[in-house]
């Protein structure tokens, strides 16, 4: 029967040979290194490159993950808001219709430019209908606001306190919006029970197309309409 030849390993000699390959290495010229250290250097460089690429990829992936998590939170919030809107859609439609009706009623209380003369006549007739004497009825300069125009009217009437109260009530009940401002009452000398009322009546109207165009031109660039 054949027997296996005996193998004698001299570990000290092997260790000495390995150590001799790592002695006297020139760090400026690795190409001249013995095979073992040169191969180990190659493996170390490859490992460092792979590790660098791996961590760089992980960093970009981590940033992308954080961004996606933030986006998920925003999408959830948007979904919640839209879900609430969808559930309340019918109620919102009814509220919108109510608002439109309310705005329409308010708009009807603002005369157009062509209707201003008729409104001024209504104010004058309200005073005459209460037996008041107009000593002054002078429309002032039209003040153009952002959405409407305001017309102040200086008035001075003479009559009894009761008639003036009824006149103020009639003004409040006009179909158009008219306000009485800065009122002052003074007695008329020699006429018992007769007063003079000074004040300013203000009424409001729509802006016509030319005025609206002028308002748009005067708005700063980028301002919302």
> Distance between termini?
108 Å
Number of strands: 5
Shape: rod-shaped
Order of helices and strands: HHHHEEEHEEH
Mean pLDDT equals 79
Structural class: alpha+beta
Computed Rg: 47 Å
Proportion in helices: 40-55%
How large is the share of residues in beta strands? 15-25%
* Largest sheet, strands/sense/barrel: 5 strands, antiparallel
Poorly predicted sequence stretches spanning 5 or more consecutive residues? none
Tally of DSSP helical segments: 6
Please give a quick description of this structure.
The chain is of the alpha+beta class. It contains six helices and five strands.
Q: Overview of this structure, please?
A:
The chain has helices at 11-21, 35-87, 89-108, 116-128, 161-172, 209-218; strands at residues 133-139, 143-144, 148-160, 178-187, 194-206. It is an alpha+beta fold and 225 residues long. Strands 1, 2, 3, 4 and 5 form a five-stranded antiparallel sheet that branches. A hairpin with a 6-residue loop joins strand 4 (178-187) and strand 5 (194-206). The model has no long low-confidence stretch (mean pLDDT 79).
């Amino acid at each position: 029967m054949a027997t296996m030849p005996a193998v004698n390993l001299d570990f000290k000699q092997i260790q000495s040979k390995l150590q001799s390959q790592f002695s006297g290495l020139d760090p400026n010229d690795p190409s001249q290194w013995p095979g073992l250290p040169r191969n180990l250097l190659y493996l170390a460089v490859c490992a460092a490159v792979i590790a660098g690429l791996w961590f760089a990829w992980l960093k970009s992936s981590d940033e992308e993950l954080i961004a996606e998590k933030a986006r998920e939170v925003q999408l959830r919030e948007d979904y919640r808001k839209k879900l609430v809107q969808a559930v309340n859609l019918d109620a919102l439609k009814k509220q919108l219709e109510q608002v439109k009706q309310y705005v329409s009623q308010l708009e009807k209380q603002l005369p157009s430019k062509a209707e201003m003369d008729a409104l001024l006549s209504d104010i004058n007739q309200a005073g005459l209908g209460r037996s008041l004497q107009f000593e002054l009825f002078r429309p002032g300069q039209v003040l153009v606001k952002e959405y409407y125009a305001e017309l102040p009217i200086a008035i001075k009437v003479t009559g009894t306190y009761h008639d003036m109260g009824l006149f103020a009530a009639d003004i409040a009940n006009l179909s158009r919006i008219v306000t009485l401002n800065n009122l002052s009452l003074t007695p008329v000398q020699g006429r018992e029970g007769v007063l003079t009322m000074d004040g300013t009546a203000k009424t409001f109207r729509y802006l016509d197309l030319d005025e609206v165009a002028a308002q748009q031109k005067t708005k700063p660039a980028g301002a919302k309409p």
